[in-house]
């Protein structure tokens, strides 16, 4: 049973994540196979199935290292040419990293390109030029490189629950970032499948972090609903 209200986009994210997790568990032999959820469209369903297979292949292909930085670097160099998918573990069996080339299929990559192209104007306006002012160094043009794919470099805030730092919580509450407010719901929809796939990977790689993220987003959605913040609820 999905604990997320169906009218939240987070519900689709959780369904996709849960499907990848159960597929992964089935493929490594610790649970029974599950049927594909009807709530996912064909593109997202195929991407989730591909991700589950990639995670499984990496999980079943671990590389153990006696962890210090020199040996770690040497192990990675050997992996560069001889390993397509893999899991790097330290000498105690703790996962250091997942190596998953090809985990994001072409359809989802296309979604990411489309969403990034939609941000072009905002990304371009976010970059500061000329002398590096003290307050503008983070977004100065010297920090960005041109894209080989023709995408516009930049740095924007797309938070649905932005909070102004260093201000008392009693006076300032989370609000939709100005950039996301200007973009409208179209950008949120364009990013939905890539965001769901990333969350699905996190569901397997770091379950506690996934559940913390889910709890926070659900809590923010309920808070927005209780305070009649319709714009924030729509972005979530």
How does this structure look, described?
The chain is mainly alpha-helical. The protein is about 55% helix and about 5% strand. It has helices spanning about 10-25, 40-60, 70-80, 105-120, 120-125, 180-185, 185-205, 205-225, 230-235; strands at about 60-65, 85-90, 95-100. It has a three-stranded mixed β-sheet with strand order 1-2-3, covered by helices on one side. α3 links the parallel β1 and β2. It is globular. The mean pLDDT is about 80.
Task: Break the fold down into its secondary structure elements and pairings.
Layout: H1 9-27, H2 42-59, E1 62-64, H3 69-82, E2 86-89, E3 95-99, H4 106-118, H5 120-126, H6 178-183, H7 185-205, H8 207-226, H9 230-235
Parallel strand pairs: 1-2
Antiparallel strand pairs: 2-3
Helix pairs in contact: 1-2, 1-7, 2-7, 4-7, 7-8
The low-pLDDT segments are none
How many whole angstroms does the radius of gyration measure?
20 Å
Number of helical segments with 4 or more residues: 9
Q: Strand sequence of the main sheet, in spatial order?
A: 1-2-3
Which shape, going by the Cα principal axes? globular
Largest sheet: 3 strands, mixed
Could you report the average pLDDT, rounded to the nearest whole number? 82
Helix content: 40-55%
**Beta strands, count:** 3
Instruction: Report, as a whole number of angstroms, the end-to-end distance.
Output: 20 Å
Please report which band the strand proportion falls in: under 5%, 5-15%, 15-25%, 25-35%, 35-45% or over 45%.
5-15%
Can you write the helix and strand succession as a string?
A: HHEHEEHHHHHH
Structural class per helix/strand content?
mainly alpha
